[in-house]
């Protein structure tokens, strides 16, 4: 397994390119199953999860061709073509490694009339049920069977029928699965209490490019007029607002200044507001955003919630930054039940954090000290990298395969703006 070693205390400065969004890519890729024509995705990030998803789509019958991109380029162009589905089964060994695979259920059901997908099981941050997804499919007329750890969904003769889906919670994945299933259903589907994350808007953008008719894009009430077929398209993946927010925290925690090339301020309002409340300077530029800090950080009270509120995927990174704030911050994690696994590791670096249930009190300390730490999940890993960038001395982050799921060539990007960082392979 690889480790990342950081010698902290270096002020970051310079331009850092932001890649395509992981959480958009992982819902745009399965759209290729909805048509027999080629779908080309540009600005696809080079991430482990994107590779895994490509392998899953290959198993289902989609070809995936990476078009010429130089090794030094960030992002890739991939053309996918599911001329014919050769399988409607997403096996356990893939789904257990990447629970996002669950969003192949909707497209398989819509295109192939059935889908057999391994129950994803929980992950480090929570048990992550999919009951909202399954209820949505039943509302569209599918029957759902569960056996041997697999879900089998079967569309009625004549295919899925448009209906009113009311989500109990604005679940991102359930909204994505419902949208892709409804795209080929007969008639109109309404999704009420839909998730409004920018990645959902990106998914609607691709579906519309493919011939879908969707009203209410960006709102919590989506109306999808089902079509008998969809067509090929070429589409650019949106920039990753969570990656950009993470590197903004890197500028803040090191008292540096970064120009985040390609970042979309439009998608980051609540993250930018929180950074500004913490005393960080953020200004839009022609090609992204510029983030700078004098290193003096103000404490914050933050509660995660569905978009447009503060995103759960930024909680760990802000916590790392706030360990050095001038006062006590209060963070409340309302989305996942176990998303504080970075706390014991940050504490080992000298942070002063007390967790009680869903709330963490982060009392600012004058400095952090480098230490060997263990990554546990994707965003927790990033919080340890951020702490290592600011800490005195050397920090070793182990199990960085977690990082590789969501951050494209992290050590290269940080090294280019002044971090003393290297990846060491234990292999
Ligand atoms: C997506 O996960 C993201 N993943 C997550 O990002 C993100 O944290 C999450 O949305 C919330 O924004 C991808 O897009 C690949 P949810 P998802 O369904 O769709 C409960 C990262 O770090 N729930 O909105 O799984 C669930 O347990 C990852 O990039 C049900 O109870 O999230 C959770 O408490 C982590 N039943 C809450 O809803 C369901 O059927 C939010 O889940 C579905 C969800």
Word description of this protein:
This protein is α/β, with parallel strands linked by helices and 427 residues long. The chain has two domains: 2-18 and 239-425, Enolpyruvate transferase domain (UDP-n-acetylglucosamine1-carboxyvinyl-transferase, Chain, Alpha-beta prism); 22-236, Enolpyruvate transferase domain (UDP-n-acetylglucosamine1-carboxyvinyl-transferase, Chain), CATH 3.65.10. It has 14 helices and 24 strands. It has helices spanning 22-28, 48-60, 92-95, 105-112, 131-139, 172-183, 198-209, 241-253, 269-277, 315-322, 342-348, 378-390, 401-404, 410-415; strands spanning 2-7, 13-17, 39-44, 63-67, 76-81, 89-90, 114-118, 143-147, 150-154, 164-166, 188-192, 213-215, 221-225, 233-236, 257-261, 281-285, 288-292, 301-303, 328-332, 352-356, 359-363, 372-374, 394-398, 420-425. A four-stranded mixed β-sheet has the order 22-23-1-24. A four-stranded mixed β-sheet has the order 2-15-17-16. The protein has a four-stranded mixed β-sheet with strand order 4-5-3-14, covered by helices on one side. Strand 10, helix 6 and strand 11 form a beta-alpha-beta unit. Helix 1 (22-28) packs parallel to helix 7, helix 5 (131-139) packs parallel to helix 6 and helix 8 runs parallel beside helix 12 (378-390). It is globular and about 65 Å long. The model has no long low-confidence stretch (mean pLDDT 95). Ligand EPZ binds next to helix 1, helix 5, helix 6 and helix 12.
């Amino acid at each position: 397994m690889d480790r990342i070693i950081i010698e902290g205390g270096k002020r970051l400065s310079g331009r850092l390119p932001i890649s395509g969004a992981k959480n958009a890519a992982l819902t745009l890729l399965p759209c290729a199953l909805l048509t027999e024509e080629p779908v080309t995705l540009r600005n696809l990030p080079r991430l482990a999860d994107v590779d895994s998803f490509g392998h899953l789509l290959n198993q289902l019958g989609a070809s995936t061709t990476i078009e010429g991109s130089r090794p030094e380029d960030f992002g890739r162009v991939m053309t996918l073509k599911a001329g014919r589905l050769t399988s409607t089964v997403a096996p356990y060994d893939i789904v257990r490694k990447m629970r996002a695979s669950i969003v192949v259920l909707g497209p398989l059901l819509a295109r192939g009339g059935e889908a057999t997908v391994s129950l994803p099981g929980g992950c480090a941050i929570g048990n992550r049920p999919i009951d909202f997804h399954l209820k949505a499919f039943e509302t569209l007329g599918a029957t759902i069977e569960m056996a041997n750890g697999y879900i089998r969904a079967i569309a009625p003769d004549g295919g899925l029928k448009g209906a009113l889906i009311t989500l109990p919670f604005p679940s991102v994945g359930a909204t994505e699965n419902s949208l892709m299933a409804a795209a080929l259903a007969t008639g109109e589907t309404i999704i009420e209490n839909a998730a409004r994350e920018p990645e959902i808007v990106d998914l609607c953008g691709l579906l519309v490019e493919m011939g879908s008719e969707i009203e209410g894009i960006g709102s919590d009430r989506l109306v999808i007029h089902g079509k008998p077929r969809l067509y090929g398209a070429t589409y650019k993946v949106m920039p990753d607002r969570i990656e950009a927010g993470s590197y903004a925290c890197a500028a803040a925690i090191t008292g540096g200044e970064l120009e985040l090339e390609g970042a979309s301020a439009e998608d980051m309002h609540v993250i930018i507001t929180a950074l500004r409340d913490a005393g960080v300077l953020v200004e839009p530029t022609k090609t992204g955003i510029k983030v700078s800090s004098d290193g003096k950080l103000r404490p914050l009270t933050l509660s995660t919630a569905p978009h447009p509120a503060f995103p759960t995927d930024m909680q760990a990174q802000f916590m790392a930054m706030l360990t050095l704030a001038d006062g006590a911050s209060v963070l409340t994690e309302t989305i996942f039940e176990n998303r504080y696994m970075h706390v014991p590791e940050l504490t080992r670096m000298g942070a002063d954090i007390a967790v009680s249930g869903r709330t963490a009190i982060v009392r600012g300390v004058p400095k952090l000290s480098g230490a060997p730490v263990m990554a546990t999940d994707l965003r927790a890993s990033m919080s340890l990298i951020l702490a290592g960038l600011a800490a005195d001395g050397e920090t070793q982050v182990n199990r960085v395969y977690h990082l590789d799921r969501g951050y494209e060539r992290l050590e290269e990007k940080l090294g280019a703006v002044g971090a003393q960082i290297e990846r060491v392979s234990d292999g």
